[in-house]
Amino acid sequence: MTLGVVVAMNEEAQDLRRVIEDLPGTESFMCGVSELMVNDQVVVCKSGIGKINAASAVTAMLARVKINAVLSIGMAGSLLPCFGVGDIVVASGAVEHDLDLRPIARVPGEMLGSSSVCHQSDKDFVRLLKGIVERDMETWRSVVRDEFNRDATLSETVVASGDSLVTSKENKSKISRHFPYAGVVDMETAAVARVAMQYKVPWSALRIVSDTADSKEVGAKVLEFCRWQGSKMIADTVVQLVGLSAKSRSDGR
Q1: S-S: 144 plus which of 68, 86, 119, 237, CB 3.0-4.6 Å?
Q2: Is the pTM of this model over 0.85?
Q3: From CA 65, how far away is CA 11, in angstroms rounded?
Q4: 125: helix, coil or strand?
Q5: Domain boundaries, the chain
Q6: What are the coiled-coil residue ranges (predicted)?
């Protein structure tokens, strides 16, 4: 198995990049405007912020490297009261909240010719991700508890993506009216999902919640925590994914 990891910003993958750099045979190069760090088990692709950058980066990566699964990583904003700072979400699907082709489409988020508004992630990949994260959740809860005095959760939810930074309560409420099943919002996951599905490659996302649904907890301290502490948690998860794939290969499966 070769895992493709897509990340918008360096800060969200600081620790993962250090891990990949230390692996034998790792090469780094530019592919268009995207930076790729390539190993026979992991490819880290820094896309830049937004759907266009993410789609371009994943396309370049999948066209150049044989990838068995794609993972979008980083931060996400909460759309529902049940999600708070430090919570971990694994994407069960993704929607494009800024896509609206009405009246030639039936509903917001619908692409012409598509049978569903939601890009569904791979169930087996989601199950694997959640299982790995769950093993480390007690440690992560302790870190979040020390910093924000709350118990972090691990959940599976739909991610809403669009080319705008959604921080206000009003904008979040607007997204929730059209996509009430979406739990968090970001700027890349749906684009990663659409390209991965076009290439018939399993995908999911691992996102750390950086604010609350009412946006009261947005701030430099929260963002720094999610970038730096979250980077360690994400790196540990990816390392375990790689370890599992290595074990499977050595076992002949």
Answers
A1: 86
A2: yes
A3: 24
A4: helix
A5: 3-242
A6: none
